[in-house]
Design a protein that fits this description.
This protein has 231 residues and is an all-alpha fold. It is built from eleven helices and no strands. The protein has helices at residues 11-28, 36-43, 47-53, 57-74, 84-101, 103-111, 119-139, 147-168, 175-194, 198-209, 216-225. Helix 9 crosses helix 10 (198-209). It is elongated. 29% of the residues are buried.
Length: 231
């Protein structure tokens, strides 16, 4: 028979709870609009107890940001199996799952939020971008990427980030269309670069050799061929 008393949490368990509560609140509203009192109430503890575990809102925000950054980084991990276009589409679907689940939190993560200018926050953001960059290079089996390939991949990672931030502002384009468009954007960036560089041309040839007739990149070619002719 229980006496109804709350179980006392250990230090790390309580910290983890506060991070989870803060991340949930930050996912629905801008961090600037969430107070320590709200975090304490959602966690079922007093305001002074929040400060016992975190010196201030900034430190709690950074801890929640770290959690979000780790989760977002994990969304770019994809088995190296099957055509590249299909892999990138699955990555984009998981990426936009995160964006949709953590709208304001995602914006705060990528724009810096109240921690803008913080060295730690900047390092977290750069870490997410670098992890995405590294994952895509791994999918391309590029141990020694050329400068043009690095430019293509970094440009695409930046494009995906910017697209997601703009999409959150009104969601005026269907999410599924943007996911496919971003995969096509990668193909377009690679193809343009291949026109200027033989090493990039080799990368593109290898990608296309593994693409099925009904694959993502073939879909792009089909759409271009179906463009209406001028009157």
């Amino acid at each position: 028979m229980t006496n109804g008393a709350r179980r006392r949490m250990g230090v790390e368990e309580r910290r983890e709870q506060l991070i989870a509560v803060a991340l949930d609140l930050f996912s629905h509203r801008s961090p600037e609009d969430v107070s320590i009192d709200e975090i304490a109430e959602a966690a079922g503890i007093s305001r002074p107890l929040v400060y016992h575990y975190f010196p201030g809102k900034q430190q709690l925000y950074e801890a929640a940001l770290r959690r979000a950054a780790d989760e977002l980084t994990a969304r770019f991990i994809e088995p190296h199996e099957g055509p590249l276009g299909a892999r990138l589409l699955r990555v984009m679907e998981r990426f936009f799952d995160f964006v949709e689940e953590h709208g304001p939190g995602f914006s705060a993560l990528m724009r810096g939020g109240p921690a803008i200018g913080s060295t730690r926050t900047s390092a977290m953001i750069d870490g997410v971008r670098q992890a995405a960059f590294t994952q895509i290079l791994a999918h391309l089996d590029a141990q020694d990427p050329s400068p043009r390939l690095e430019l293509v991949v970094r440009s695409w990672v930046s494009l995906a980030e910017t697209t997601a931030l703009l999409w959150l502002d009104g969601r005026r384009i269907p999410r599924g269309e943007l996911e496919r468009q971003l995969v096509h954007d990668f193909a377009a960036l690679a193809a343009v670069s291949a026109a200027y560089d033989e090493r990039m041309a080799q990368v593109v040839r290898r990608i296309l050799a593994d693409e099925p007739a009904d694959g993502m990149f073939a879909d792009l070619v089909g759409r271009l061929l179906q463009l209406p002719q001028p009157a």
